[in-house]
Design a protein that fits this description.
single chain; globular; mainly alpha
Length: 450
Amino acid sequence: MNQTLDNKLGTAPLGKLIFSMALPAVIAQIVNVLYNIVDRIYIGHIPEVGAKALTGLGVCFPILMLISAFSAFTGSGGAPLAAIQLGKGNRDEAEKILGNGVSMLLTFSIILTFFFMLTKEPILYAFGASDETIIYALDYLSVYLLGTLFVQLAIGLNTFITCQGHAMTAMFSVLIGAGINIILDPILIFGFNMGVKGAALATIISQCCSAIWVVYFLISKKSSIRIKACYLRPNWKIIGGIAALGISPFVMQATESLINIVFNSGLQKYGGDLYVGSMTILQSVMQLFVLPVQGITIGTQPIISYNYGAKNFERIKKAFKLTLIVTFTVTCLATLVTWLFPGAFASLFTSDTDLINLVKKVMPVFMAGIWIFGIQMACQSAFMGMGQAKISLFLALLRKVILLIPLALILPTFSGVMGIYYAEPIADIIAALTTGVLFILSFKKILAKA
């Protein structure tokens, strides 16, 4: 067992440790936001066609989210298990989990690439594309799919770096890709006049660089656990364990894809292309605040996992309380800022006056429940860190499948297109309250069974 890792996750002062673990993860997630929205900012400002191109990119979101969901399925399912094994001193078992994770990501890459290449046009129409926006959606997606392998490896394996306590290294893997993406975007979109194809090409080149960095680290001596050829052969027991825990983050992201489909098709039906474009901006702004909060939970989850494996329960309780205070504070501030400055956020993505005015109207409604979301993220992360697959899956299904999707389908029949925007805050508030109550009722029982 790596003694430095043991000292760091098991005995270092919690406040300083959480800060050192969470700060790089927060920075990485902020940069990851740039990964996700810089394309939209540049595309939205393409002369004459920016608004339509932005809407076309928006209908690609469900597919992009589904691809990243498979990365989360493997990375978020495998990394906590690896950290728990490290806490128990079982490095070989942790490396077996890593090796099987690599095999899963390679398999997903092949299947996803070929499936969406063959079905992309009818799927995009089903996801809310119109005859005016389909060309931009196809241009972006056709190029993006060529880099599916890089996306899988860069995102899916980075969590295995974080779970060892190497938060700075994990941060740099994101910084490298995002920096390259930001530099290449204007060059390819405007300099080479490639439009949305240029944005997609910039993304896959940058993800390729991130993937190389991550894989190189995980085969180097700097890594506490390494990718070894002997552990790449599928072990169905290990894959089953990864799947059991990974199904929750997979459902969270896959259902995000389903939500986008429901939102975009409903907005197209009740409002048209302008409303679909507004949702692209709204979800980008939500990511701007939610992903950094996820960075906090990503940074603290290895601490919870390691100490759960080591049966250091008081340390788990303290780590959770600190995480909850920070995440709840950030999400409350996010609500306040988006209520006060909706027009400023809209202007980042478009110069279209009609689209800006629409976003100014609907953003305060759409973001009205984000203030309480910090509670759900802190509790759900703790459940994940302690290996509670069933509870995590239920909570993932609650907000999106049980609440948000039905609300987005039902409310517009009573209040028109605004009903789709009302659905988000209602689901956020109910889900967060339920998660908090469930955590209070089950936390001590989970520790007692460890």
